[in-house]
Design goal:
mainly beta; 2 helices; 46% strand; seven-stranded antiparallel sheet
């Protein structure tokens, strides 16, 4: 079994050194956060990477986006995946969600002969967090492992397709979307990442737990993410040993794609 997608996730036990010395009577109200994202390990249907003979894969970084494009240009350019290279902001404890990175599939008609279409790709996301006004510290590096299916743009199409034909993505380990908790002082904080799939034509969770979604041909289709942090008071202060744990290290890069 292959796979994975990691978005906000590992076991997050925030034990920031500057918070370890005090028992907090009130929850930390504001958090600075930063999310840095980029593509890795793109491979086409023939098993080729960027730069290999016959590959049309091309990576670029411009305008605040990290992009990977593919396919033979038949007058519309290449299809591509874009992700925000960096998103930062302030989270309010028990407040509204704040925007994370946005993934966009610019889906155009391309030539896909000789296996030049994208087959799989990893999305690497670095999550940094700190109580405001501190500078965000890297707490976790997580990876989305994504399988992609380029359609031949001719019927028959998937029953849920709105174009001829929608392309298909598989996010292969949605269990990594589970909200993660950590303790500082008298409060248990929970950091969660939520998906907004309203910019897609269709999505579903398959029986094996993977998430499948479709993107319309001839359009720009976006999958948005949002961050939220909540706090709940706990009966007694956490032991100082727990408070002293560092997020760095616990947020090591997670499982790699299995084959």
């Amino acid at each position: 079994m292959r796979l994975k997608q990691n978005i906000a996730g590992a076991a997050v036990v925030l034990g920031l050194a500057f918070a370890a010395g005090s028992a907090n009577a009130m929850p930390i109200p504001l958090w600075n956060y930063s999310i840095d994202s980029g593509w890795a390990n793109a491979m086409d249907q023939a098993g080729r990477s960027e730069g290999d003979a016959g590959s049309t894969l091309h990576g670029s970084s411009a305008g605040g986006l990290n992009s990977v494009s593919w396919g033979t240009n038949v007058g519309n350019g290449q299809s591509s995946l874009d992700i925000d290279a960096n998103v930062s902001g302030i989270l309010t404890t028990n407040g509204a969600t704040e925007p994370g990175a946005a993934l966009t599939h610019n889906n155009v008609i391309i030539g896909i002969g000789n296996g030049v279409a994208l087959d799989k790709i990893d999305l690497v996301v670095n999550i940094s967090l700190a109580p405001a006004p501190g500078v965000p510290t890297l707490i976790d590096t997580v990876t989305f492992n994504i399988d992609f299916f380029e359609t031949p743009n001719s019927a028959p199409c998937d029953a849920n397709s709105v174009s001829i034909c929608d392309d298909q993505f598989l996010l292969l380990n949605p269990e990594d979307l589970t909200a993660q908790s950590f303790i500082i002082g008298n409060f248990k904080y929970t950091l969660s990442l939520e998906l907004d799939m309203s910019g897609l034509t269709f999505f579903e969770t398959l029986p094996n737990g993977t998430i499948r979604f479709l993107t319309a041909e001839g359009s720009n289709n976006s999958l948005l993410t949002n961050l939220r942090i909540t706090a709940m008071e706990i009966p007694e202060p956490a032991p100082l040993a727990l408070l002293g744990l560092s997020l760095i290290g616990l947020g090591a890069v997670r499982r790699r794609r299995k084959v």
